[in-house]
Amino acid sequence: MKNHPLEGKIATVKFDSGLEFRLDFLADHKMRWTSTREADAGATDVETIHIESYPSGIFSIDWVEETGLCVSYTLDTVNHFVKSFMTFTDDSYRGGRRPFIHEGPFHFILENGEPDLAVI
Questions:
Q1: Looking at the Swiss-Prot or TrEMBL record, what is one Pfam family this protein matches (predicted)?
Q2: What does the alpha-carbon distance between residue 74 and residue 72 come to, in Å, rounded to a whole number?
Q3: What is the pLDDT of residues 28-70, one digit of tens each?
Q4: What is the C-alpha separation between 43 and 41, in angstroms, rounded?
Q5: Which letter does DSSP use for residue 37 in this model?
Q6: Per DSSP, which regions of 19-57 are E strands?
Q7: DSSP secondary-structure letter at 115?
Q8: What is the pTM of this model?
Q9: Is 113 helix (H, G, I), strand (E, B) or coil?
C-alpha cells in the first residue's frame, strides 16, 4: 500500500531561477531530488518529506535538508506548475533566514523520460 498518492511517481521541475530537478517519490515518505543542471554535476540527495493532498490535484510537499535549507513546494498537477518557498541561514535577514521563491513547469514522467499521463 502506498504511503501517499505520489509514491512511485517521477517528475521534472524547471524553475524560473534556472534550477532544474528530477524528483523520485519513494516509499516511506522519502523523495530523491537530482539536479539536472549541467553546472551541478548531478547533485542528489534523499529527503524525508511531509506531504499533504488537496482537492483539484494540489499537493504541498515540505522538507528540511541536512544543511538546514527548508523547502516547501506547492504542486498543481492539473496545470503542471510548481511554486517553491525556501529559506536558508543568512544573519543579514530577519530571523537569520533568507527567503527564496521560484516557480516553473512541473511534469510527471516515466522512467524512460516519456510523459506520464496517468491521472492522480
A1: MoaF_like
A2: 7
A3: 999 999 999 999 988 999 999 999 999 999 999 999 999 999 9
A4: 6
A5: S
A6: 20-26, 30-35, 44-48, 50-54
A7: B
A8: 0.93
A9: coil
73-117: pLDDT as tens digits: 999 999 999 999 999 999 999 999 999 999 999 999 999 999 998
CB 59 within 8 A of CB 6: yes
The three cell numbers of residue 69 are 535549507
Assigned C-alpha cell, 26: 519513494
Answer yes or no: are the C-beta atoms of 103 and 87 closer than 8 Å. no
The sheet with strand 10-14 has its strands ordered as 44-48, 30-35, 20-26, 10-14, 97-109, 81-89, 70-76, 58-64, 50-54
Q: What does the alpha-carbon distance between residue 11 and residue 68 come to, in Å, rounded to a whole number? A: 24
Grid cell for residue 6:
505520489
